[in-house]
Amino acid sequence: MMRQVLETFMQPFAAFAKLSLSALTAILALTLITGCSSEQPETGPDSTAIHLKLNGEDKFLIENGWVRPTTGKMSAAYFTLTNLGQDDNALVSLSSDKAKAVEIHISEMQDGKSTMRQIQQLPISAGESALLAPGGLHIMLIGLTTPLAEGEMVDFTAVFENGETYRFQLPIGVASTP
Ligand SMILES: [Cu+2]
Q: How far is the CA of 102 from the centre of ligand 1 (A)?
């Protein structure tokens, strides 16, 4: 009985360890594309850090990113987004290779029920982070064009208020967001 409970408890961690490895592979691939310097350790949640650079300068950091696996038509993506720049900014739109539409959503409790609504932009002050996690802010993928299988990657393009546009990839798999 106790052993069973322990195994159930450990399952998300095992899934995360698996995800970290595939994410690391993806980051190594992305590093080659963007020329992003890899100063992160090779293990642990930090290994999922993605640097978004402009003219060689670190502008944003994406950490602990993951997309929920599904065979349905909708999914959600979660990550921590940090504004490393000198100016306040805001995430204003997203697109993906695997969904017809991508929206910024927030989940809220209303009359004891969980509902979600779209927000037009996600402001992030200079030096601040936005936490996108289950039960709160999230990126909604609507009209999936393919099933999202664990271990695969999803391409995203993010546009910010000042016109800066970045491409990045997030791994499909359930991670334990801290
Ligand atoms: Cu949503």
A: 10
How far is the centre of ligand 1, averaged over its atoms, from the C-alpha of 163 (Å)?
A: 24
Distance CA 81, CA 121 (A): 13
Q: What spacing in Å lies between the alpha carbon of 3 and ligand 1's midpoint?
A: 36
Which among 14, 131, 159, 141 has a CA at the least distance from the CA of 67?
Answer: 141
Give the CATH architecture of domain 2-171: Sandwich (2.60)
HSE value, Cβ hemisphere, 13 Å, CA-based, for 96: 27
What does R_g of the chain's alpha carbons equal in angstroms?
16
pLDDT per residue, tens digit, the chain (178 aa), is 444 444 444 444 444 444 444 444 444 343 333 333 333 333 334 457 999 999 999 999 999 999 999 999 999 999 999 999 999 999 999 999 999 999 999 999 889 998 999 999 999 999 999 999 999 999 999 999 999 999 999 999 999 999 999 999 999 997 654 4
- Compute, in angstroms, the gap from residue 36 CA to the centroid of ligand 1: 31
* Ligand 1 centroid from CA 41, angstroms: 32
